[in-house]
Specification:
It contains 6 helices and 4 strands. By secondary structure, it is an alpha+beta fold. Strand 2 (89-97) and strand 3 form a beta hairpin. Helix content is 48%, strand content 22%. A 4-stranded antiparallel beta sheet has the order 2-3-1-4, with helices on both faces. It has helices at residues 2-29, 35-38, 60-76, 80-88, 120-127, 132-141, and strands spanning 48-55, 89-97, 103-109, 143-152. Helix 3 crosses helix 4, helix 3 (60-76) packs across helix 5 (120-127) and helix 5 (120-127) runs antiparallel to helix 6 (132-141).
């Protein structure tokens, strides 16, 4: 059992490293969506997905603060799909610098909840209506280059 878990961790680690490299290249090659567009409804069309977040180097504390509130919102939500989303949603911070010296945060979602909205603004608004505007502004203001959504299709499992 332990070796199966270790193999899974190694596989996920390799996938994340490859995706991180691809994300940096995507960020350099293409203009990421603006942070305002990043707040539009976000649903994955595949069982696994990622969202690449390009954050200003000086705004990492703000971004991570909002991620903490996001986790709290998902965990305390009465909506069954929100708790299901929380189980598959992981937030990673890249050690390597992103495009234009930004900090790359990767949301790795496995499994993704089909049809569920992963937009932070929506989830925060549901859980913290009185704080939603301030949290949205803090989140929105942390972006250096917005977000890029990636729907992943498994082609090989070793």
């Amino acid at each position: 059992m332990r070796s199966v878990l270790n193999q899974r961790h190694i596989l996920v680690g390799c996938m994340l490293a490859a995706v991180l490299a691809a994300g940096i290249l995507i960020g350099i090659a293409f203009t990421a969506t603006t942070s305002e567009a990043a707040q539009a409804a976000r649903s994955f069309t595949t069982p696994t997905g990622m969202i690449l977040n390009y954050v200003k180097r000086g705004s990492t504390n703000d971004f991570e603060f909002v991620m903490g509130k996001l986790g709290e919102a998902l965990q305390t939500s009465e909506a069954p799909n929100r708790k299901e989303q929380a189980r598959g949603w992981k937030v990673y911070r890249a050690r390597e610098a992103g495009p234009n010296n930004s900090v790359l945060y990767v949301w790795f979602v496995d499994p993704a909840v089909g049809g569920a909205d992963y937009a932070v603004s929506q989830i925060i608004s549901e859980a913290f209506p009185a704080e939603a505007q301030q949290l949205y502004e803090t989140f929105n203001g942390s972006f250096a280059g917005g977000q890029a959504m990636v729907n992943l299709e498994l082609i090989e499992s070793f």
